[in-house]
Amino acid sequence: MNLVFEDATPMSEKARICLDGLSGSGKTKTALRLARGLVGPNGLIGVVDTERGNASKYSRKHPFKRLNLTHFSPEALTAATAAAAHAGIGCLIVDTFTHFWSGQGGMLALVDAKRSTGPFGGWKDARPIEQKMMDALFGFPGHVIVTLRVKADYVLSTDENGRPKVTKVGMKPDQREGLEYEFDVAGSLDLGHVLTITKSRIDDVPEMAVGATHLLPGEDLGEVIGDWLADGEKLPTLLDYRDMVMSATSVEKLRETRAEVFHRNMQGLPLVDNGRTLALAEFIDARGMDLKRQTQLPAPTAAAVPQNTPTGPVHRPVDAAGVADYTLRIGQAPAPDHLDPIERELRDRYADQSMPEADLDYLLTVLEQRRTNLATLRKAHA
Question: InterPro entries of this UniProt entry (predicted)?
Answer without folding.
Answer: P-loop_NTPase
